[in-house]
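Journal club prep — side note

Before the paper discussion, L.F. wants everyone to see what a predicted structure for a comparable chain looks like in token form. Sequence:
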Amino acid sequence: MSGSRLVAGSRVAIIGGGIAGAGLASSLLFNGRARGVSLDVRVYSHSEPNTVPPPVVLTPECRSRLAALGCRVPMDWRVHELRGVEVLSHGRRDLLPAPPGGLWVVDGWPNGPSGLEVVREALVTAATAQGARFISRHVDRVERHAPAPDAPEVVRNSGPLVVRAQGSGDRFHAVALATGAGGLLGDAFFPGFEPAPTVAAVQARLRHGSSRLTLAPLARLWIAPLPTVDGLFLLPGAHSVYALAFGPAVTPADLCQALMMAARDGLVDEGFELSALETTRLPFGPGRSLVAPGQLVVGPAALGHPLQLGLSETLATCSRAAVGLLDGGLEASALERRYVREGLSELMEDAAAGARSIAWLRRAGRRAPEAFLAARRKGSMCGVYSGGVLGLAAPTPLSLLAAARWAGLREVVSSWLRTAVEPVPTTVPTLEPDLYYVVDDDPDAREAMTQLLESTGATVVSFSDELALFCAVARRPPTAILLDVVLHWVDGLRLCEGLKQHPLTRNTRVVVMSGLNRPHVRQRALEAGAEAFLPKPVEPERLLQLLMGHGAPLPTVSPPVHVPEIPADAESGRYAS
């Protein structure tokens, strides 16, 4: 058996059983059969289940690639056909229409499998039908050990690469890494391996009380909604909305605050519930060292950028890796030439341009949506292998980078010349007297505070979940908000800061309450814009005088509104600001 090329009977291992792994298995077996080469392909598919399995957007190119790999793409996969992608930034918005053939949203979560699971299962079925074997084992490392000269013939013909998985070791002629971005094997795959860089991200699923979403069939990209968030994707699924926030320092609290702002601005329906949330990583450019003798990397581990919407790039790396392995040979120089330089060069340029454009889009501010339109009008600046951002044929990443850079420079220069004038909302709701909002995740504290205020004749709306607060304040401004510090998703101090930063909610009075009666907590509450800080248990007379003035008639109130104290040892765990 030849040591430098894949021949009939060669053994190939694929680490990762997701879209990239199953796609590479199908592509290898299909292309091998077309060349008269029957391969033994094993896919190590052990992985941790996603808490937030995402939907999938199938572009016309994605559907064609799936069909070429032997996957059926039935019409009933489609739960939505997007009209396009709306790009928003600093109050400006523009729509990029969907391409001919449409953008399909595939998703059944939570009543059925997510879009990612649907497409993966179709690829697994296609690969299995062609002879691939899927093994549920976690791979620890890949080693290179040439068989001993006196080893049995079956061992000498099994290849020089050893895949160590949960105590077992199997030999292969070639090994491909097809895991997602982040959490890779590193040097345990091969020495000097440099995968695609990554950026932090947080993803979530939003569910609504109504069985049918009223959200328009649009994907939305909000550029820089917060200082720590470079972008927020909102994608309607079958029974939920998928949200993804990304940025170098993004946290779950950032995503929650961005979602509250999105609800306030009408980007998601009111009354949503955060059903699932988890941190993840997204590819942020091309990898620098992707091949070794008999080894290569495909999918998000090889390249990508956060503005990708769809699977075209992942499936393209799979088909080009299969051709590179079968036609280029197993030597590192041959794989570098056939797979990286000839197969991936344009995709790598796109990944680098897409990642670099994000910083310029942030600098562009209100001109960011305009940059997408300008880049789209220029058409493609790349070759036949390049796709567009956001699942569209245009703009391409390179044309977007050029337009975003120009928009960013214009915005920087114009900011020097103009006086900063904050946009004023077209309609500002009238403050409703004697309306108070109470936000506390403790039901006893919430009930006690509600009874106290209602005893004065006030109207009280209580919130157990802070996610609905922004929307409620913007649409029905209260006289004041009583805000606890320790909440479920976002601490009350960040919530207060967010309320004070927007024209619709800036003038709302906020009183912060907390059992964390520490000087630094009090100081931070006042710096965040709170009118006052009240330690728990709250003294009723002090609270009522603060809210209603010294001349307000006070009801007969006995003991203080008692809220259970938070133990000192729990402070660091529950309050991290």
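L.F.'s comment for the group: The longest helix spans residues 332-364. Keep this in mind when we get to the figures.
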